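Interim report, section 4.2 (structural modelling).
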Amino acid sequence: MKVLVTVKRVVDPYVKVRVKSDGSGVDTANVKMTMNPFCEIAVEQAIRMKEAGVVTEIVVVSIGAPQCQETLRTALAMGADRGILVETDVEVQPLAVAKVMKALVDKEQPKLVIMGKQAIDDDANQSGQMLAALLDWPQAAFVSALAVNGDSLDVTREIDGGLEKLKLKLPAVATTDLRLNEPRYVTLPNIMKAKKKPLENIKPDALGVDVAPRLTTLKVAEPAKRSAGVKVADVAELVAKLKTEARVI
Amino acid sequence: MATLLVAEHDGKQLKPGTANALTAALKIGGDVTVLVAGHLCAEAGQAAAKLTGVKQVLVADAPQYAASLAENMAALVLSVADQYSHILAPATGFGKNFMPRVAAKLDVAQLSDISDVESADTFIRPIYAGNALATVQSKDRIKVVTVRISAFDATAEGGSAPVEALAAVPDSGLSEFVGNELTKSARPELTAARIIVSGGRGMGNGENFKILEALADKLGAAVGASRAAVDSGFVPNDYQVGQTGKIVAPELYIAVGISGAIQHLAGMKDSKVIVAINKDAEAPIFSVANYWLVEDLFKAVPELTAAL
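Predicted structure of the assembly:
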């Protein structure tokens, strides 16, 4: 069974981003970039399924600037078989991601698509569900466990009050939550090997997909800063402050 | 202009987020219709009709809506979507699951997790874990929006809107509900709690969360956790507060043994009063705290519980 996995290149989650002074966006120049953590979990899941003999081929896809090749190479070094870069300079919004992926699914015919539940830059949490809708496939969003069982997919999802188990008809789209797995580190020999793995470069036009953004960002601002707090000496002072100053208890 | 708000409920009562999302819907302007989809959910429909400002309630009562499966929820919303200029749902696990399906089928963008309404086509939403606020405009014919419930006050009761039945769409047959394991707790839900006590990696293990639970019970608070505590297996994932967990803004948030990673701050920094207890005087959590105590949590927390 073939699996398609998406990987997004994002600002490193441990970097505190700065809003540009002209309010046009956040400053991403000279900032450390990395693979979106949830996409890493998606790649790891596909590799584990391949190691278990369930998956035969893992194709990783990234959409964006030429530098996304680095993100794809990381996924290949982790253990994916083949990469596709859909290269574009425009800001690719979730609906466009879903349309590009739909075109690639039509071409590659995978049984399963695994995506991160959310990218830590735009925090949209949309692409996987949108792709499932465009394909008329079932979806398992926010999965913490996943197993192929004949023609169906048994999943456990993280929901607000706990966990939910679903059975989906394959083919399907799954989006990963944190506890699905712990991604492996890439090793130097595997980085060398990944350089020889095939990586195809295509343009959205070649897939017949319009990736023009639908939403216009008018302004990006910094959130209001919290006023500086006070250090309390002990529990007694804390209780007194909460009772008389903050009046919350 | 007309807005459809998809209610989150348990069949009898509305989940608290529904009344908060309604506030966002009313701010957009235009008539608001609330859709209650479920199985044996007439009571929840009546509850929705009581919310102030609601023009009409639609109840779709059928077995295929019992588990809120994304495929069925989306198909139902799509069956009436063309009558509305805006479709809203709370940005909870419920709304996040099916709303993007609705947007994709309508070939419109979705505005996720909005924290304010500027106008009928312009909204504010946090990006980069809340470290930036984007003002975003949509020119699509229908705006599909999920609402950050902690950013809007709940609309009070005081209305009596007419309730009508909405025909169900046949089951998609694509997915099937097998079961669930819900965290059993007598404490309030995280997203609805007035006070939250959260623990981080500093708790050391899951057993030690008992001292937080004792404090929470004294305060009538919910118990939360940082991603580090969840990753370490101390507590279940549904305790998680942060960028990728629950976003909360209670009146009082007590962070215990939490260093204050960017992604955790994203989930709680809009709380009205923040208390941090950490033995590390350099912990970043202190930068957002109103009151901070540099002390060993295993000494401070039982002391605090005893003092209340």
